[in-house]
């Protein structure tokens, strides 16, 4: 029950976090935005949602997942409403400002991993983190339903609906959600905990890998509507539907990656993910024709990225010290989010408007996946013991 509720809270907050992405082509048209301006609009919530995970993870170690799920859901209500008002006013500066605060919703991920870990024994944590990670389906829900809600109810009303859903969900958490009996609050000061987590090799290794796989997912799930509009000339609704399919495939693949990592070494799951990501990104460079071949290309890319996200966090769950899971998770999750912040900016900056071409951006993804593949294969061990935090000075 608690894991299912946590997954729903994550999904709804991911929906809120991705309120701008599915409407980016509409905003770009209505406000006559350049490709770079539209990219900045999409990327801004990702930045705060990424960096904020560092704090959210450490606070979860102290206060537990229940309080943090409630707090983040409530704190996301005003930014959702403010973004709706800014969009209604067609104000690009206000959309950027309020989109910055919309990133609060994206910090929810750093809460759920330690929360799920505490409910399950180590041999089942790959499954647990994979199931919670399926809350990424919120990006698919947003991509599919947000443009439709705007057509049906209007822009502002759509944001009001999500705000009400966040409030109701927070109320359900107050009444139903509980922390695991195994949860022990870590009341050490936050900064020393983060410093100790940063001294662990696992933190940096997993951050690098997660920046590729989760960053790739976030980047495509937010920027794909713009990509599909520019390359294939799809409408906002059609592009949203296809982006929802991409996000849903990644969501389904994530728990599979986690479950596989309970049975085989996570290293091999991550290697398969990185290899598949590199291949499919290279295929995307060729601009496969719509609808069948382009759909196959991006769905396979989503599956490889999703499997990788499940594999990386199953690896984190095995190696991070129990008292520091929240801190390590927050840093790794932040790295993943930051990995999704820069690609939309790069894609916008390198977009060849004359040829509707994103070759440079996609080749950079290929290169990043190959480098991560080689690093994982050559430098990371298949099995490693749980590490202990570095002593504080």
Write up what this structure looks like:
- α3 (35-63) runs parallel beside α6 (92-102).
- This protein starts with a helix and ends in a 14-residue tail after the last helix.
- By secondary structure, the protein is mainly alpha-helical.
- It has a single domain (2-177, 184-379), classed as MFS general substrate transporter like domains (Growth Hormone, Chain: A), CATH 1.20.1250.20.
- It contains 17 helices and no strands.
- The radius of gyration is 20 Å and the shape is globular.
pLDDT below 50 for ≥5 consecutive residues: which ranges?
A: 385-393
What integer value in Å does the Rg equal?
A: 20 Å
Largest sheet: none
CATH architecture: Up-down Bundle
Cα(first) to Cα(last) distance is 41 Å
Shape: globular
User: What is the CATH H-level superfamily?
Assistant: MFS general substrate transporter like domains
How many strands appear in the DSSP assignment? 0
Provide the CATH top-level class: Mainly Alpha
Q: How many distinct folded domains?
A: 1
Query: What integer is the average pLDDT?
Result: 87
């Amino acid at each position: 029950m608690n894991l299912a509720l946590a997954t729903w809270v994550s999904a709804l907050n991911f929906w809120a976090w991705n309120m701008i992405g599915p409407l980016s082509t509409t905003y770009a048209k209505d406000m006559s935005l350049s490709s770079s301006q539209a990219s900045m609009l999409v990327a801004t919530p990702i930045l705060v949602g990424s960096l904020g995970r560092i704090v959210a993870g450490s606070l979860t170690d102290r206060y537990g997942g229940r309080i943090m799920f409630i707090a983040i859901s409530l704190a996301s209500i005003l930014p959702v409403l403010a973004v709706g008002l800014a969009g209604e006013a067609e104000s690009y500066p206000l959309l950027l400002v309020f989109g910055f605060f919309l990133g609060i919703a994206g910090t929810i991920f750093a809460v759920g991993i330690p929360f799920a870990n505490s409910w399950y024994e180590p041999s089942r944590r790959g499954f647990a983190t994979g199931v919670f990670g399926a809350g990424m389906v919120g990006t698919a829900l947003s991509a599919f339903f947000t443009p439709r809600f705007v057509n049906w109810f209007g822009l502002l009303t759509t944001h009001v609906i999500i705000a009400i859903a966040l409030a109701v969900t927070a109320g359900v958490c107050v009444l139903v959600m509980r922390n695991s009996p195994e949860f022990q609050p870590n009341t050490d000061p936050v900064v020393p905990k983060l410093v100790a987590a940063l001294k662990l090799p696992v933190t940096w290794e997993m951050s690098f890998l997660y920046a590729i796989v989760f960053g790739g997912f976030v980047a495509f799930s937010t920027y794909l509507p713009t990509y599909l509009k520019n390359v294939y000339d799809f409408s906002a609704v059609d592009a949203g539907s296809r982006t929802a399919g991409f996000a849903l495939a990644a969501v389904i693949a994530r728990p599979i990656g986690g479950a596989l990592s309970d049975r085989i070494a996570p290293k091999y799951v991550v290697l398969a993910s990185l290899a598949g990501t590199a291949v499919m990104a290279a295929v995307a460079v060729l601009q496969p024709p719509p609808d069948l071949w382009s759909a196959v290309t991006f769905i396979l890319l989503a599956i490889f990225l999703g499997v990788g996200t499940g594999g990386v966090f199953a690896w984190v769950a095995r190696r991070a010290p129990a008292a520091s899971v929240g801190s390590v998770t927050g840093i790794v999750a932040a790295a993943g989010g930051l990995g999704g912040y820069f690609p939309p900016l790069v894609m916008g900056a390198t977009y060849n408007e004359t040829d509707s071409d994103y070759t440079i951006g996609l080749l950079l993804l290929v290169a990043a996946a190959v480098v991560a593949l080689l690093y994982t294969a050559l430098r990371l061990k298949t099995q490693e013991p749980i590490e202990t935090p570095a002593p504080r000075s």
